[in-house]
Design a protein that fits this description.
The protein is mainly alpha-helical and 346 residues long. The chain has helices at 12-21, 25-52, 65-69, 81-86, 114-126, 130-139, 142-145, 185-192, 203-222, 263-280, 288-304; strands at 160-165, 172-176, 183-184, 228-229, 246-249, 256-258, 321-324, 333-336, 341-344. Helix 5 packs antiparallel against helix 6 (130-139), helix 8 (185-192) packs parallel to helix 10 and helix 9 (203-222) crosses helix 11 (288-304).
Amino acid sequence: MTVKIEPEKPTWRQRVRTRIKNMHRRDVFIYVGTATVYLGTIAMLLVLPLKLIPSIPNGANDNDLNVKSNNNYLPSNCPLYTIIAKGDNLPLSDGPLKLPFQRPVNGCRTFTSDAMEKLITNVTERMVDKDLARIFENSYPNTLGTASPNGLEANRADTTVSWYALDDTNPLAYVITGDIQASWLRDSSHQFVPYLPLLPFDTNLQTLFRGLINLQARYIADKPYCNAFQPPPESGLNPSTLPGGIRVTPSIDSTVYQCKWELDSLANFLRLSWGYWQTTNDAKFINTNWLNAVRQIMAVIQAQSLPTVAEDGSISNQAYTYQPMGSRAVSLSLFDTANYRRINLF
């Protein structure tokens, strides 16, 4: 009787060695490349979410340039306004929404107005909708009385009076707007307009208004074509980084943050000045600085009223130009309807 002996099955290690010996170089590259892509994808899925989690800065209030440089220095225990705005601070409103109180305590406000506090109390006590009353209570005084954050960081930014000096002979007030530590003529004027009715009842608020008008007049008298400015040297605030790649005529200096010609920027300066005088009948803001600003406004309006194309078809000399210098070509042209031709300005 013949016994059939079956060959011994190779182990998995032997099978792997045999396969490696018979593997072509091309197959090696394919396997290595596939493994690299697979492991790299897994690593990205693990690491990328950790990178996207925003870090909370340690000692944020200690690094807050606005708070440290403000002449009304806020105590180190004052929280950033964004912390207050995100918290469920008591007392909650009596309405169904139970809205939190989002104002800093008295010692952590950059500016206080007794007239404003009386108005808020008078209005909110008469409102039937207590949730709406809480919204008014939180928002109406926001420009004047919030803790100043660092405007250079968008996630900590707030619209507020950043710095002021209430010297009655030469007051100054620097008001930042939006998420940038820079003062726009138009925006800072708009922020103060809602407080005009309070001026007859608060002399300190009058001085703060004149400080904003006085600082805006200084900027306009020097750079009438520009619309946003850096902090004044007196404030001690660090200037913001200027946007790059822009060519402006007339040239600008370190006092300017942005120089986009806007008629409404100059108009809002005049509107704020008129509103202050109309409400208080006080003309102390009309000084040499203010008169120089008005002269510059009139000169700019006259220059910008001149035609771009002269009667002979040539391009007139432009008193102001603003040209972004980017990676893409930008051209501006006019169509001369009399001669049916296109004129390239640049």
